[in-house]
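Example 3.2
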Amino acid sequence: MHAARQAAEDGRVPAKQAEKFVSEIGWREFSTHLLHQFPYMAERAFRPEFDSMVWRDDAEGLEAWKRGMTGYPIVDAGMRQLWATGWMHNRVRMIVASFLIKDLLIDWREGEAWFWDTLVDADMGNNIQNWQWVAGSGADAAPYFRIFNPVTQGEKFDGDGRYVRRWIPELAGLSDRWIHAPWTAPKEVLAAAGIRLGRDYPAPIVDHAMARQRALDALEDVKSARDKA
């Protein structure tokens, strides 16, 4: 922490970046202390009411997520980058985690275990706390109803499609207009780009609007169980 701030004072790094790095160190330490004080959170929800969450048993969906074959380009680009390099940007980590938990309704522990195996910068406390943060079951967690739309997230943070094209070369021929939702492109546009959905790149494995409502319904079940307890 002191080294980062000294680097900023010396003009070797921008002050804003140094402080962001310091804040991440604070989050890491917070996560470490949480795991020390509440070791059960490595195996179950930090907030006990979330233990009643009914997760889906979806081996095919989990495998598609791991392989970067969900049909949602920003998700797939992130998961392919993770497999190839052992790293991905924090924003993409949140997007892919939200997709697994909210869109596929797969247990956050499946994602936590995969990240632990594949991330070169995996930190036990951080990994567990961050996955529970996305799931809404952790301390200071994101509200469960915060569900990322993978299309609009891609459009917002990869507007020119450069990231998607790097990690999903089969979509490289699509214009920026269609790159984050290729299933919405006209057939002639897909044909011109040499893409046939289901052959060269998968169609979405889940409808986001439907999945979002399903996740919200699951949350209501958790809340109802808590209120009855």
